[in-house]
Amino acid sequence: MVRGVAQRLVAVALVALGAGCSSLKPYPNDGPIKNVTIRTAASAGSVFSSVKVELDVHGVDASCATRYLGTLQLGQPTVAVSLPPGRGSLLTFQFLSSNFLGSSRGSIGRQVLITPRPDQRYEIDVTYRDDLYDVVVRERVRNDALREVALRDLSACR
């Protein structure tokens, strides 16, 4: 009896988890040029916790209205992304933490408004160390040097 109840609870939890994940629309990331490289890094933490990073991409039009374009899972140390040059993109990095049982401990988000310039490349470092979350954006300029770009949120669009 107890085993049957436990199996049903696990099945319900899996269905709920699958339903939650299926609501995310994958970001197409199919542009001709991958002009943004995102590097993620986390400190060596406890085996009982982990932090996952997702990127929500929103297009920003001339009137500063946003449109959700999709979500990328940043599960690899480096991910190449295609953002439309000359058009605003609002990037929301979601840091999702959970414990070893899989229960969520919460999420923290960081937003970055970026308008990639044509023929430019960008590098974004996303880090999590000692419960501190950070996002740094750099533009690769002439002579292959990197220039840090000031972080802006959607309020900078107005």
Report on this structure.
- By secondary structure, the protein is mainly beta.
- It has one domain (25-157): Sandwich (Immunoglobulin-like).
- Helix content is 13%, strand content 48%.
- The chain has one helix and nine strands; from the N terminus they run H-E-E-E-E-E-E-E-E-E.
- The protein has one helix spanning 2-22; strands spanning 36-42, 49-60, 66-73, 78-81, 88-99, 104-114, 121-129, 132-140, 146-149.
- The strands form two sheets. The chain has a five-stranded mixed β-sheet, with no helix packed on it.
- The protein is globular, with a radius of gyration of 18 Å.
Class from secondary-structure proportions: mainly beta
Order of the strands making up the biggest sheet: 4-1-7-8-9
The proportion of residues in beta strands is: over 45%
> Which fold name is given in CATH as the topology?
Immunoglobulin-like
The domain tally reads: 1
Q: By CATH's scheme, which homologous superfamily applies?
A: Transthyretin/hydroxyisourate hydrolase domain
Arithmetic mean pLDDT? 79
Instruction: State the end-to-end CA separation.
Output: 61 Å
User: If you compute it from the alpha carbons, what radius of gyration comes out, rounded to the nearest whole angstrom?
Assistant: 18 Å
Number of strands: 9
Helix content, binned percent: 10-25%
CATH architecture descriptor: Sandwich
- Topology pattern, helix = H, strand = E: HEEEEEEEEE
Low-confidence stretches: 1-22
> What sort of overall outline do the alpha carbons produce when their principal axes are compared?
globular
